[in-house]
């Protein structure tokens, strides 16, 4: 396929393009990019328009570099996988106590283990009922000094009330910022930090 392309009509698009709003529309022999939105972040995307000699129209070929380094199209975090010993106990914690909604559209029977997908905003947590290779004892009391997942929320004080009511121990951020750390039933550390919406 590369031999069919003539690189003489290549140009770089020096705009930061949001992958979620970029649309490429072919209009005869040219490529028109409609409504790209500028995103905050590092580097530039580069797009090349090249003429394919086997068809009489332009083809959009995406080649990327960020600060001179190859870019494979990083878009964002999709999900975080969390190991659990007992799926029902973990669902009681994540769904019933913390209020995370179950994503019923995700497959539950495609893996050789039980699991569930939970929504965290537009991202997900994948609970996987598998043996945990990490030690459950000897972990730091403060989850911020251990491997942890950080979830952004609007009101730490309301979550603190929920944890108090459920009898779940927690620690507050040592830096004084509005954040709370606690562990799930399998000793996985979680941080919930308050952000402006």
Structure, explained:
The protein has 197 residues and is mainly β. The chain folds into 3 domains: 69 residues, no CATH class; 57 residues, Roll (2,3-Dihydroxybiphenyl 1,2-Dioxygenase, domain 1), CATH 3.10.180; 63 residues, 2,3-Dihydroxybiphenyl 1,2-Dioxygenase, domain 1 (Roll). The protein contains 2 helices and 14 strands, in the order ββββββββαβββαβββ. The strands form 5 sheets. A 4-stranded mixed sheet has the order 11-14-13-12, covered by helices on one side. β4 and β5 form a beta hairpin. It starts with a strand and ends with a strand. It comes from Carnegiea gigantea.
Give me some keywords for this one:
2,3-Dihydroxybiphenyl 1,2-Dioxygenase, domain 1; four-stranded mixed β-sheet; 34% strand; mainly beta; disordered N terminus; three-stranded antiparallel β-sheet
Distance between the termini: 47 Å
Strand share of the residues?
25-35%
Helix content: 10-25%
The backbone outline, from C-alpha atoms, is globular
What is the C-alpha radius of gyration, as a whole number of Å?
Answer: 23 Å
What structural class do the secondary elements suggest?
mainly beta
Number of helices: 2
- Strand tally is 14
Q: Into how many domains do the coordinates divide?
A: 3
